[in-house]
Design goal:
heterodimer, A: 224 residues, alpha/beta, six-stranded mixed β-sheet, five-stranded antiparallel β-sheet, 7 helices, 11 strands, B: 846 residues, alpha+beta, 5 domains, six-stranded mixed beta barrel, 30 helices, 54% helix, elongated, binds adenosine-5'-triphosphate, binds magnesium ion
Chain lengths: 224, 846
């Protein structure tokens, strides 16, 4: 299978001397196209830090990340931004939405920034599946935490990216909704050949993954 | 899953405490904890805190400067009123012995001083009788000298006591050929007591020398003092100018003084038209007068309103962000009272840093510049002038209180929000007005421009407030600059020398019976302006243009056999319009109509009644150009405000009446500016031998008027500069804060693929919107305000205000400044963001 995402000795250290925090250490992993990969680990183990670097949102202290064979940290900042809006979808742990525009606009924003036409039918479909179609005119701060997270998921899916990075996308959701969201991710992945990298604490989700990275003190200790 | 949730919450909690700053952790409870929290918040928002402190400081500085100036002006004038203007309240002219006696009987007059004109002196070489300089003799008694500060002007010796004594400036004696006058010297003068007398030689002994008045030019007038005996020995009938000081028991204020003095004059049998008030002394010694107080209060009010808006706006920007921050602290268990205290302390700590600095800087600025301004004026040269201190504790406290009050008002809103909403609501607070209710219609697709508009309309109130504050600061700038820019010293100078660089005019009397050759009718018979030398002027190579205004002598025939000699100016259309534009006309003068009717105009609107004429009367007169005469009845069509001659007709009428030759009364000579000096010398030598001519230069007039204008401009521009500086701080603060509090949101935008270029475009669009809004507000409000100010100044004859110019340059300058500022800010911002990873931006806590 084609490798879409690969890292080599990825490290991220915060601070220096006594206060040095080795958030991510020597991570070398590979994810194949179309795979559903999860990252698990204790709180503070470095999951989010790793995910941010995989998506080019944070610079590593050392090491490299390739997406479809391209060394992303060699790219210019603006080229990286363009790569993000075309090839990558993001769902953050917190602070996901732009507060001044409504739900619909939040979802279609990456397309707008890229100058693309919105596939309205598709976006509506996603919103319906996520059960937030009646909230499209709401401003983000009037939504519940779970609803906000679902809007972020819709946004990540709307541009049909090659890879979706999601940081605990189901963390605020009840079991039923959580299951539906995972089903949606998988369906979308299948239909569009997308790759998904997701952080989760949910054992059930980890069970159905194609690949699991267990991270401990910044090191990937096992992969399956 | 349970497990995961618990951990997540823990992380969040850490974030909450973290946001409040490390100071929060030091002490868990008590008043100092609140102060520590406030300090922590100030440190965390360092850049914004610095901006606020600077803004508060500058605002306080402006308030201090204005208050100190007002205070200094009133106090300096109050303290120095007597020194500067004399201690008399008014003067009655033309008072005879009987009326004087009436005055002396009244207790209202505390002091009565007498003075009288004691004749004129022939200047120059006595035989030729050329009168370039008016030199007069007068007598003033001791009380007058004291009330008018005359004794202080004495350089040496004493005022005349015996009949043959005289005191004057050395210049007076120099004019008569005594180059080094000393006390005790004998001088011979040609004097006469009145127009009916012949000049005759008289010998005086110099008893005193008066200080040279440096402001007096060569063409000034000199006054010499003689003794009471001298006056009494010559006057057939005593006629005094009586200057007096009212007794303290007379209830007068600056506004009523003139009426009181007029009533008193009538009671003493003195015509109230001969009353003149020493208005400067009356105003400053009694009370500053309503107008001054209202003016100062108005200015202070404008500044206070302006400061409130600026400080309020500074606190208002980023209020949503701050309310969310406060919400987190509240969630930790801070009580309502503690929350209020926290916000209040935060504001007051900033005020405590900004206000004293502003007071100190403002006082320093005011006292130094006030001293400079005072020293530049003639005032400070007056002996006995006291420099007042601008320091007034009451005023300082008032200014500090005003600034603190402003901060407090600005703090009320966040305090109210934070204490009235639940912590959760506070944490989510977006600062939206209630109307939108959390909904937004939105667009099907959205790009950079849509995002900009969304962010602006989402914060509609703040956007509007920012534009209005910025706009109003610019309004002040536009109207002030506009006003100062319209002060035109050349207009003032052109009032005196309407055309060209030099003015040569006839110097004549009207009814000198002893020396009829000095009268206009005689001079016109062999008009010196038509002499060979004057004709020569046209051949001088520097001269580019010569204009001539004709003048006729006239004899007015009034009721019965009463006749009066006078002069009539012949106005070209341009001169006619020029007189109209100076205002205060009567009867709507119109050149064509006047020419058609052969109408005549009076020269001084205010004195038409005194002259015994009314509009549309037929004026019976004989006009004379020196060679021909015409007996006429001309309709009196109106009057100009203030002219050189008593009467005027149009050029067309002049020709219609058949006056063939020229009878020039004034000629104006123009030349290239760089040739002026050279030409002046040539003109001097050409005209030096000719009698009955006066010469004036435009440059001299301009110089005098420029001196006055530059003071006003200096004041206006320094005020405007200060306002501009504060406005800049306000605008910079608004924009920087707007960017800082949205950094997180920018981070999200960039995470989903916004390029730096797009972000820059969004910020530029916002800036453009603010700039356009500001320009519109300032133009829509600033132009009328500026025009109003101009109009008020013009009708009150403020210096140099004449023609309104659209302040295109000022507005252009303002737009340029705004654009540069935008550029500067976006540069600064992109540097600020560069090098930070997207995650850092998202995590940024502002
Ligand atoms: N900006 C930063 N500065 C200093 N240390 C940081 C920073 N960001 C993260 N860390 C540290 O790096 C480590 C890993 O953090 P990370 O957010 O990746 O954890 P995580 O695995 O996502 O935890 P969780 O499951 O709670 O979200 C933590 O110890 C954290 O304190
Ligand atoms: Mg995490």
């Amino acid at each position: 299978m084609e490798t879409i995402l690969r890292t080599e000795n990825l490290c991220k250290y915060y601070g220096s001397g006594e206060n040095e925090v080795r958030a991510v250490q020597n991570v070398s992993i590979e994810v194949a196209k179309g795979e559903f990969a999860v990252i698990v680990g204790k709180s503070g183990s470095g999951k989010s830090t790793l995910l941010h670097m995989l998506g080019g949102l944070d610079y590593p202290t050392s090491g490299k990340v390739w997406i479809r064979g391209e060394d992303i940290f060699q790219l210019k900042e603006d080229d990286l931004a363009v790569l993000r809006r075309r090839k990558i979808g993001f769902v953050f742990q917190a602070f996901n939405l732009v507060s001044s525009v409504n739900v619909w606009e939040n979802v279609v924003l990456p397309l707008g920034l890229d100058g693309q036409k919105t596939d309205e039918a598709f976006v509506k479909d996603v919103l319906r599946t996520l059960d937030i179609e009646d909230k499209i005119h709401n401003l983000p701060d009037t939504l519940s935490g779970g609803q906000q997270q679902r809007v972020a998921i819709a946004r990540a899916l709307a541009s049909k990216p090659d890879i979706i990075f999601a940081d605990e996308p189901t963390g605020n959701l009840d079991t039923k909704t959580s299951d539906e969201v995972i089903a949606l991710f998988r369906m979308s992945a299948k239909k569009y050949g997308q790759t998904i990298v997701m952080i989760t604490h949910d054992e059930d989700i980890a069970q159905i993954a194609d690949r699991i990275f267990v991270i401990e003190d910044g090191k990937v200790v096992s992969r399956a | 899953m349970r497990d995961g949730k618990g951990k997540r919450q823990e992380t969040k909690k850490t974030a909450k405490t973290g946001a409040a700053g490390s100071a929060a952790g030091k002490k868990p409870a008590g008043g100092s904890a609140v102060t520590n929290l406030a300090l922590g918040s100030i440190r965390q928002n360092r850049s914004r805190s610095i901006l606020i402190v600077i803004s508060i400081m500058l605002t306080t500085l402006l308030l201090t400067v204005i208050a100190s100036y007002g205070y200094g002006m009133i106090r300096s004038n109050h303290v120095n009123a007597g020194t500067l203007y004399g201690t008399y309240h008014g003067v009655y002219a033309g008072v005879g012995t009987e009326e004087l006696h009436n005055m002396q009987l009244r207790s209202e007059f505390a002091q009565i001083g007498l003075a009288a004109s004691a004749g004129t002196v022939q200047s120059g070489v006595p035989e030729t009788g050329s009168g370039d300089v008016s030199m007069s003799l007068m007598w003033a008694d001791e009380t007058t000298r004291q009330l008018m500060n005359l004794d202080r002007q004495l350089a040496d010796g004493h005022f005349p006591e015996k009949a043959g004594e005289i005191a004057a400036q050395p210049g007076f004696f120099r004019m008569l050929g005594y180059d080094n006058p000393q006390i005790g010297d004998s001088v011979q003068l040609n004097t006469r007591f009145s127009m009916q007398d012949y000049f005759g030689p008289e010998t005086f002994v110099i008893s005193g020398l008066i200080k040279e008045d440096t402001s007096q030019g060569t063409s000034g007038s000199y006054q010499a003092f003689v003794s009471e005996d001298y006056y009494n020995g010559r006057a057939a009938q005593q006629q005094y100018s009586v200057c007096f000081r009212l007794s303290d028991s007379v209830p007068v204020t600056g506004d009523t003084a003139e009426d009181v003095m007029k009533t008193l004059a009538r009671d003493c049998g003195i015509d109230d038209r001969y009353v003149s008030e020493n208005s400067a002394y009356v105003m400053w010694s009694l009370d500053p007068g309503r107008e001054t107080i209202v003016g100062c209060a108005l200015l202070a009010l404008i500044v206070i309103v302006f400061s409130v808006m600026v400080i309020y706006n500074i606190f208002q920007t980023g209020i949503a962000h701050r309310v969310r921050e406060y919400g987190k602290i509240k969630a930790l268990g801070a009580t309502k009272k503690q929350m209020k205290k926290l916000i209040f302390r935060e504001g007051m700590l900033l005020a405590a840093a900004g206000i004293p600095a502003g007071l100190a800087a403002g006082y320093l600025t005011a006292s130094v510049s006030f001293r400079i301004l005072v020293n530049q004026s003639d005032m400070a040269d007056t002996e006995g002038f006291v420099h007042v201190s601008l320091f007034s504790p009451v005023l300082m406290i008032a200014v500090a209180a005003a600034a603190a009050l402003t901060v407090w008002i600005a703090l009320k809103k966040p305090m109210k929000i934070v204490s009235s909403v639940s912590p959760v609501e506070a944490m989510r607070w977006q600062g939206r007005d209630g109307k939108t209710g959390g909904y937004r219609k939105g667009k099907k697709s959205i790009r950079v421009t849509g995002l900009t508009m969304a962010s602006l309309s989402n914060n509609r109130k703040r956007t509007a407030m920012t534009i209005v504050t910025m706009g109003l600061s610019c309004v002040l700038f536009v109207s002030m600059a506009n006003f100062a820019g319209n002060m035109d010293p050349s207009y003032d100078a052109r009032k005196q020398i309407p055309h060209g660089q030099f003015q040569i005019e006839l110097d004549y009397s009207l009814s000198d019976t002893a020396y009829p050759e000095n009268n206009l009718d005689q001079i016109l018979k062999s008009n010196p302006l038509e002499s060979r030398q004057i004709r020569e002027i046209g051949n001088l190579e520097q001269v580019t243009e010569i204009r001539v205004q004709n003048r006729l002598s006239a004899v007015l025939h009034r009721d019965g056999n009463d006749t009066k000699k006078t002069a009539v100016a012949v106005l070209s259309r341009e001169d006619f319009e020029n007189e109209i534009s100076q205002g205060s006309t009567l009867g709507n003068p119109d050149y064509d109509q006047a020419s058609a009717d052969d109408a005549i105009f009076y020269g001084w609107s205010n004195f038409l009644g005194d002259e015994g004429y009314e509009l549309n009367d037929m004026v019976e007169l004989t006009l004379d150009d020196g060679s021909e005469t015409r007996d006429l009845k001309m309709p009196l069509a109106g009057s100009f405000g203030s002219m050189d001659t008593e009467w005027a007709i149009t050029e067309e009428t002049y020709h219609k009446l058949g006056f063939e030759g020229e009878s020039p009364g004034v000629i104006w000579i123009d030349c290239a500016e760089e040739d002026a000096e050279e030409l002046q010398q040539e003109l001097y030598s050409l005209t030096s031998g000719i009698e009955h001519l006066d010469m004036f230069s435009y440059r001299d007039a301009l110089e005098t008027s420029e001196e006055g204008v530059s003071m006003m401009k200096l004041f206006t521009y320094s005020l405007t500069g200060l306002i501009a500086l504060i406005s800049f701080m306000n605008m910079a603060n608004t924009m920087i804060t707007g960017i800082i509090v949205r950094k997180q949101e920018f981070g999200i935008l960039q995470a989903i693929g916004m390029t730096n270029g797009q972000l820059g475009r969004m910020l530029r669009q916002e800036g453009l919107f603010f700039t356009l809004g500001t320009v519109i507000v300032s133009v829509v409000f600033g132009l009328p305000v500026g025009y109003g100010l101009f109009w008020y100044g013009k009708t009150h004859s403020w210096i140099g205000l004449h023609e309104y110019h659209f302040p295109a340059a000022e507005i252009g300058l303002m737009i340029l400044a705004l654009a540069l500022m935008q550029l500067f800010l976006s540069r600064m911002l992109s540097r600020n963001i560069k090098g930070e990873s997207v995650v850092d931006r998202i995590r940024y806590q502002g």
